[in-house]
Design goal:
Length: 361
């Protein structure tokens, strides 16, 4: 019951934090959509400018994840689709075959400019909306296209002038990633200490799903950089984003090596190997060092203390593990130490030398 209660508490905390972090972008999107409608209706005089808020929501809605490229693709896609739909339906009217023509032309226009699948799909959907929901009359020709341009432009303007913090998602995702890595290392230590393959198997199943955390971290860092491109006020964060970006590759490798480590730890237990007594405390010490790196990376602090902690672990790694699988565990420990040192900013050759030169029996 306590375990279930703990999981529910963690789930509630994750949802609460997600809502808190998304509150400002959601308010932005809602207010901008209303402003786009008001601008198209009261300034441009369009009677029912529903494409203005639609385009604005599409642009800002996708920028909740702060992906500039996707936002621009959606803005262009909806503009192309509405423009093609307005132009073609004005000439040939609306109906089933007219919709087929409109969709084909919208897709061909998108392909002509060598765009991505997101833009193509949005162009086709927007063209269908024009051809079915509100067939244009001569008095309203191209007003929807203008509304679309207004909404898309306003959405991009809001994303540039009032962007979300580019570090928020990057810090959150690196914290999640390093927490999973630390849990895997401490779980492997617990499994080896108790010689319980079932415990190791549970740890293995969990670390096998960690690629999602790696991908989320990589995406968040790239998205943060995109914000600094369009928002001059956020460019001061580029230094920390550069440090996080430099850590993405090494942390990916560290997690991959941890998967191998846990798998071989399970094999050692299953095969009844005698694992060197020093392996378990080294695993726990490395988990603690990962925890320190997590706090410093997610908090924007200097990484000197984390680097020293990892180097201290390197000095404690034994030369052998006691058997074939246990030996692989030790080799993976050295690899993870190398990856973590690279994540702190150390050159890979230097990190590899540090992980090898300081080991002892």
């Amino acid at each position: 019951m306590t375990g279930a209660g703990g999981r529910l508490a963690r789930l509630f905390d994750v949802r609460r934090r997600r809502l808190r972090e998304a509150a400002w972008p959601v308010v932005q999107c809602a207010l901008a959509a209303g402003a786009a409608f008001a601008l198209a209706r009261h300034v441009l005089g369009h009677e029912l400018p529903f494409f203005a808020p639609i385009a604005c929501v599409l642009v800002l809605g996708i920028s909740l994840t702060n992906r500039l490229k996707r936002s621009v693709e959606l803005a262009v896609g909806v503009s192309v689709g509405v423009g093609v739909g307005d132009g073609i339906v004005l000439v040939i009217g609306s109906g089933w075959w007219q919709i087929a023509v409109v969709v084909a032309l919208a897709l061909f226009v998108g392909l002509l400019f060598d765009v991505g699948a997101l833009l193509l799909n949005q162009a086709a959907v927007s063209a269908v909306l024009v051809a079915t929901l509100q067939p244009p009359g001569s008095s309203a020709a191209f007003s929807r296209w203008i509304d679309t341009l207004v909404g898309a432009a306003l959405g991009l303007l809001v994303a540039a002038v009032l962007p979300s913090n580019p570090l928020t998602a990057a810090r959150r995702t690196v914290e999640t990633l390093l927490r999973e890595l630390a849990d895997a290392l401490s779980g492997a230590a617990e499994s080896l200490e108790s010689a319980d393959p079932a415990t190791g198997q549970r740890v293995l199943e969990r670390i096998r799903t960690s690629q999602r955390a790696v991908d989320a971290f990589d995406t968040a860092v790239d998205a943060g950089y995109e914000i600094t491109v369009i928002a001059p006020g956020r460019r001061r964060h580029r230094g920390e984003l550069s440090r996080l970006r430099a850590a993405t590759g090494p942390l990916d490798l560290a997690v991959r090596n941890a998967r191998v480590l846990v798998r071989r730890a399970v094999s050692a237990e299953t095969d009844g190997e005698q694992v060197a007594p020093s392996v378990v405390p080294v695993l726990r010490a490395l988990a603690d060092a990962v925890g320190l790196l997590r706090v410093d990376l997610s908090g924007g602090h200097r990484l000197d203390a984390a680097e020293l902690a990892v180097l201290d672990v390197a000095a404690r790694i034994p030369r052998s593990g006691g058997g074939f699988s246990a030996g692989v565990v030790v080799a993976q420990l050295r690899s993870i130490v190398t990856d973590l040192l690279c994540a702190t900013g150390m050159d890979r050759d230097e990190a590899r030398a540090a992980a090898s030169a300081t080991r002892r029996d």
